[in-house]
């Protein structure tokens, strides 16, 4: 078992510092592929730089028609843009999930008065009132 560690961490050998399949194919250790993979999982050099999975399960949201479901969120601008965008420090966005149409409104603060004002502007601009508005809890 210690031989897997020595072989994997030796940069002069072909297949070292690579994936489990490439390492197993090039080094031909006397262990099974499953055993080699288990040993490699114990090494921080192996699992520390593994790429994140690009495809992972997501919740499916079904929007039957336009103006059915909208999502909303608040964007806080970085401080370096405060001077250029006075007095606006935040942007509230509304996205139609069916058509992907986006509405964005600058607001000066996170206070309920400013949020309600932007919500009223958005409801005036939307032709048909939405059935659902999805937001996060906000912190």
Automatic annotation (TrEMBL):
Where in this chain does the record put each Integrase catalytic domain? 53-139
The family database entries (InterPro entries) matched by this protein are listed as: Integrase_cat-core, RNaseH-like_sf, RNaseH_sf
Spell out the Gene3D superfamilies in the cross-references.
Ribonuclease H-like superfamily/Ribonuclease H
SUPFAM superfamilies, alphabetically? Ribonuclease H-like (SSF53098)
| Highest taxon above the source species | Eukaryota
- UniProt-recorded name of the protein: Integrase catalytic domain-containing protein
Q: Which organism is it from?
A: Orchesella dallaii
